[in-house]
Amino acid sequence: MGPVLNPLRGPAFQCHLWRHRLVSDFDLGVLEGASGLPDGSAIHIVKSPEKSWPPALGGPVFEDPFENGDPWFTSWKTADGYIIRFPECGFYIQPREMRIECDPAPGVAESTIAHLILDHAIPRLLSLTPGFVVFHASAVQVKDRVIAVLGKSGQGKSTLAASFAAQGHPLLTDDCLVVRWDESVGQWLAQPSYQSVRLWPDSVGALGLAESDLREFAGYSSKKRTGREVDFHFASTGAPLAACFVLPDPATPAPAHSGPPRVLPLSVNEAFPRLAGAVFRIDPSDPEVNRREFEVLTSLASTVRFWSLSYERDYAQLPAVRQAMLNAVAADSSGFRIAAS
Question: Is the same domain home to 149 and 176?
């Protein structure tokens, strides 16, 4: 893992992640210590000017704006893939070739480029790959099964995951959960991500982390990434996804929770739309991708136990929140039983 010589393009960065070998023109140094298998298929990440990319076929197929309405993420379909654009970077994603071309804006920080590649471009490439589905979720391993937390950005998924990791539960991811079908065991396995967690400054303090053990997350954000110096436990292999806790939808007005954490069982009909809403998407209009996604979600819904999770946004409540989640899973045997699909 690390820089190697590419005879055509010069030095390249190589590592393993999500059962793929990444070969990148950009230094993805945050992946030091990332788990993976050396025999996985390759994803190539190439620096390329946007003017060399093929034209889009019509207007945008998906847009995700900031709260003020300005575009944050936009995607367009091309003849053999997609062009996606963020304010700091554009990407040309080619799923058949497992290739991502990247054109950063001038002066963009290396940490921002790495973040957009790892946390946005690659997950969307994998979302187009049969046998994979990718969720906005944090996930930790308890015994030999995985429990996940679904929620919007800023709801505390990373902090909750980090608090589990600090207590010795292996962490798979803080916000990008890759689930892969394993034919050999007939199960959907949650895959470990890179060994780092992204945290806001107040969470860093609440978890007792030293600033000197952190690194820049992205040039535009005050968040920090944990480095290898932080004594967190990370998962090294995939495990079946057994339980999923759903945080309240911030778009639904509700009074702030107070008192002990509240965990309530959810029916499949209640949980399915929240699970579907957490999927990394690039083209909601593609019928083939939608069909595969629906089949995956239906399969997961038959094997994963769902609960709603509400708790007071007070760091002192984190031990009680963890215990409430563990109690719910332990009390429901289906939370640790994964049936073959």
Answer: yes
